[in-house]
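thread: overnight batch results

M.L. [08:02]
morning all. the overnight job finished for the chain we discussed friday. pasting input first so we're all looking at the same thing
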Amino acid sequence: MRYNLPGGHPLIGRSAPDLKFEDGTRLGALLNDGSALLVNLNGNNELQTISKPWVGRVKYVSSQPEDNLGLSAFFVRPDGFVAWATDGEPNAVEVMEVITRWLGKPSA
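M.L. [08:03]
and the structure it wrote out:
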C-alpha cells in the first residue's frame, strides 16, 4: 500500500521499514505508543533541535541501524507511514514543514 504524499523520495507514502538498530531495538517497537518519529541515521544534531518544539508529539531517534537502506533521515507519521525522507543532508525547512503538516504548529 502506498499513499500519494508530496515529496520526491521513493519511501514517502510507504510503510516505514522495520529497521533493526545497533542496540537491538526495532523501529516498529518505537511506533507502538502512537507517536510520530523523526529518525536520524547520520548523526546530524540539527534534527534533534528541530524536533524539540513538538516534544510529546514526536519522538526523536538517533541511532545506527544494521542497514540504513541508503537513508540519512526520515519522518514517520503515527500510523507508521513515511511522510518525509532523505538520502542526503536534511533540509531544516522541509523537516519543519512536514512535522507541522502532520502534527500541527509547534508548542510555544
